[in-house]
Amino acid sequence: CENTLKDGIHISRGSRFGIIQGYNAIKNGDDCLAIVGNTRTTDSVRNITATGCNLYNGGARGCSVLGGEDIYIEANIENPSSAGFYVGKESNSAYDLRPPRRVTIKGRVKGAGLGYRAALAATPKDGIFCFDYAEDVTFDVDVEDCVRRAAAKH
Questions:
Q1: What is the percent of the chain with per-residue pLDDT over 70, rounded to a whole number?
Q2: Contact 38, 73 (CB under 8 A)
Q3: Pair type for strands 101-110 and 63-66
Q4: Residues 6+ apart with CB under 8 A from 145
Q5: 31-76: per-residue pLDDT in tens?
Q6: What is the CA radius of gyration of the chain?
Q7: How does pLDDT run across 75-94, given as a tens digit for each residue?
Q8: Closest C-alpha to 61, from 130, 15, 13
Q9: Distance between CA 109 and CA 124 in Å, rounded?
Q10: Is 118 helix (H, G, I), strand (E, B) or coil?
Q11: Using CA atoms, how far apart are residues 43 and 45, in angstroms rounded to an integer?
Q12: Contact yes or no for 141/127 (Cβ under 8 A)
């Protein structure tokens, strides 16, 4: 998937038992891979496995997990505009997202730039951002050449 204006793959609306293998994304307009838990009144996204993913030059994050349960991701991420891996929720979201639960992230992040919000809580080398309310999240990620990009103060 190349040069899209939106998420490369967007999994939501109670999707279950999904398998993504060997996915390659280049220059997506938003997140290269997005797993989005639904509102508290609908079924949660769960049992999603993504392996062998290569996510390059995303317009936002390499991979985001915004809700969902029993998520396993293996990915190589290079040069996203924001965090390489992002686990949590978006504070400006119109959706009432569930906290992510039982998430395992493995892989590599190179050249991630952390946006202003992430820069407030993450170190420049992290390339990873995880909210503290996410439950049972495991990272096994090599990180290199990540920078902090903070917005100008108003």
A1: 71
A2: no
A3: unpaired
A4: 110, 111
A5: 999 998 866 556 789 999 999 999 999 888 889 888 889 999 999 9
A6: 14
A7: 999 988 888 888 887 665 66
A8: 130
A9: 12
A10: helix
A11: 7
A12: yes
pLDDT at 143: 74
pLDDT-above-90 percentage for the chain: 29
CA angle 21, 6, 139 (to 5 degrees): 50
CA distance 29 to 131: 24
| Distance (Å, whole) CA 77 – CA 25 | 10
Task: Copy the structure tokens of residue 7.
Answer: 């998420």
DSSP-assigned states of every residue in 5-71: SS-SEEE-TT-EEEEEES-EEES-SS-SEEEE---TTSPPPEEEEEEEEEEES-SS-SEEEES-EEE
CA pair distance 112, 121, nearest whole angstrom = 15
